[in-house]
Automatic annotation (TrEMBL):
Name assigned to this protein: Glycosyltransferase RgtA/B/C/D-like domain-containing protein
Keyword Kinase tagged: no
Organism of origin: hydrothermal vent metagenome
Membrane-crossing segments per the record: 92-114, 121-139, 145-163, 175-204, 216-234, 255-275, 287-311, 323-343, 349-366
Secretion signal span: none
Keywords: Membrane, Transmembrane, Transmembrane helix
Keyword Disulfide bond: no
């Protein structure tokens, strides 16, 4: 039943995504990528990293160029006068790939929690996803961000499924490394999350005497890392500065909202004091917390590099929240996972169940309100 509902949910999200695309004009960065990195480059140029923008990993540009060849769509860019282009047909067609990837990512999150936990957990995961501001900002953007989010969701679903499902580990390892290779062709910044999750599975796999991955897995992991490093060496190097309206902490909390951090903190406290009383609470929490902490540290390290190398405005580009986009899928997944386990931990305690329900619902409502106001103030969808 969960597969059927997920199937219809995917198409509903897809239709809604096209609606959003038609109400969001194409803007400068999308136009520049389309003209300079897609229309103006051959497939070989893309594969060799010969793209004149910082995000030069080729997978999204490959997909986008193929869609444009099939639909015979082409843009022109004449400079500042075209900061926005309002053309509903182009807005929808040039964002087909991003819309599909984001709809798939949201559906996979819903399906995972519905299939392995409950319908309530699936619905809650769906709402947590829609309350995340970065989902709305990059749902229909003709750039690689939705693809990066989608692959990260697939990576995390495989990660937690490998932990839960002993019978399918042999085949899941292969899909896990394939996802990493695709991520390596999508975003250089995916390097950290690939290394972190691979090492977590290897480390805990040794401790638990799981069936560990074969040599082919490690060859694939090294290959994915090498691909990331190759495109980093080929990418143009820019200077970066910080906008006063977007200090470092705000950039991080755009991707990992404060409300979700609070839930993870509450879980961490209960994990310390109750971990001996519940096997699922202890085991899944251990993997989730480890992944969350290490990924957050990686994001902090990346931010530290930006801070150390920051220059004065306007020499270069502003540091923006999308550089830390990998935090959004993991924040959604672990927030939902931790919320589910907190509710299960106190399922026989009426008052704790009521209190937790009020806290979790309240934080979700506050997050929804903040996200809606942010999207409204930024006027992302305005035509």
């Amino acid at each position: 039943m969960s597969k059927v509902v997920s199937f219809f949910l995917f198409f509903a999200l897809l239709i809604f995504g096209f609606y959003l695309a038609q109400h969001k004009p194409l803007w400068n960065d999308e136009i520049y990528s389309q003209v300079g990195s897609i229309q103006g480059q051959s497939y070989f140029d893309m594969l060799s990293g010969n793209i004149e923008e910082g995000s030069n990993s080729p997978l999204f540009y490959f997909i986008q160029k193929t869609i444009c060849l099939i639909t015979q769509q082409k843009l022109s860019f004449s400079g500042a006068s075209n900061w926005y282009i309002i053309d509903k047909k182009l807005q929808a067609l040039l964002r087909v790939a991003s819309n599909v990837f984001m709809a798939l990512a949201i559906t996979l999150i819903f399906y995972f929690f519905t299939h392995y936990y409950s319908w309530k957990a699936g619905l809650y995961a769906f709402l947590v996803t829609l309350s995340s501001p970065m989902i709305w900002r990059y749902w229909v953007e003709a750039r690689p961000y939705a693809l990066w989010i989608c692959l990260t969701v697939i990576q995390l679903v495989l990660f937690f499924t490998l932990i839960k499902n002993k019978d399918k580990r042999a085949s899941l390892w292969k899909w896990f490394i394939l996802t990493h290779i695709l991520m390596a062709f999508t975003a250089v910044f995916s390097l950290a999350q690939m290394v972190i999750l691979s090492m977590i599975l290897w480390w805990f796999g040794r401790q638990k005497k799981w069936m560990l991955p074969s040599k082919l897995y490690w060859i694939g992991t090294v290959l994915a890392i090498a691909i990331c490093l190759f495109y980093y060496t080929q990418a143009p190097k820019y200077n970066f500065w910080f906008d006063q309206k977007n200090p470092p902490l705000k950039l991080l909390t755009d991707c990992f909202p404060i409300e979700q951090i609070v839930i993870c903190g509450i879980y961490g406290i209960f994990f310390i004091f109750f971990r001996k009383g519940n096997v699922a609470f202890r085991e899944e929490g251990k993997y989730g917390l480890t992944a969350l902490v290490l990924t957050s540290l990686a994001a902090g390290a990346l931010m530290g590099i930006f801070i150390i190398k920051a220059v004065e405005y306007p020499n270069g580009f502003a540091v923006v929240s999308r550089y830390f986009l990998f935090l959004t899928p993991i924040s959604i997944m672990v927030t939902t996972l931790f919320s589910v386990h907190l509710m299960r931990l106190f399922k026989n305690n009426f008052w704790m169940t009521i209190n937790l329900s009020v806290v979790l619902s309240g934080l979700l409502i506050v997050r929804f309100m903040k996200t809606y106001l942010t999207i409204y103030e930024l006027a992302i969808y305005w035509k």
